[in-house]
Write a sequence for this structure.
């Protein structure tokens, strides 16, 4: 089980002792004040062959990162790279790797409250071909 929140416009995914960023951050992030070591590749440009997520390092026993305390926050049934891949496939814009605000809002609005976080288990259960239809409808400019 993972917790998913937003950080700098990207997704922050945390489960047990591993934390990932999925998608390209849209705003600069002060990694230290968020409770993380600065990632090595943050300043590199996006390339089509780059993996669209990266793992963050935290000091053992450090406080829960601020971003994971913010609302809205999702509970997602997958962990690690599987969760990163699923969230990337479902919530990022392919041409630039950023998280779609429209898709994020749809997931937040469609997820029931699970006692302080929203239960997004349904999102992992939607087959990708079905989600592609939803995705195309949501991302189509009106």
């Amino acid at each position: 089980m993972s917790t998913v929140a937003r950080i700098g416009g990207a997704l922050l995914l945390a489960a047990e002792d591993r934390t990932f960023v999925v998608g390209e951050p849209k705003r600069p992030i002060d990694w230290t004040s968020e409770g993380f070591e600065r990632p090595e590749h943050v300043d590199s440009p996006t390339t089509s062959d780059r993996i669209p997520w990266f793992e963050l390092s935290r000091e053992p026993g450090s406080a829960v990162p601020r971003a994971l305390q913010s609302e809205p926050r999702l509970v997602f049934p997958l962990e690690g790279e599987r969760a990163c891949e699923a969230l990337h496939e479902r919530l990022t814009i392919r041409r630039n790797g950023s998280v779609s605000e429209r898709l994020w809002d749809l997931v937040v609005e469609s997820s029931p409250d699970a006692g302080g976080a929203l239960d997004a288990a349904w999102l992992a259960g939607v087959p990708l071909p079905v989600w592609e239809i939803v995705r195309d409808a949501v991302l189509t400019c009106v």
User: Anything to note?
Assistant: The two ends are 36 Å apart (CA to CA). The chain is about 25% helix and 20% strand.
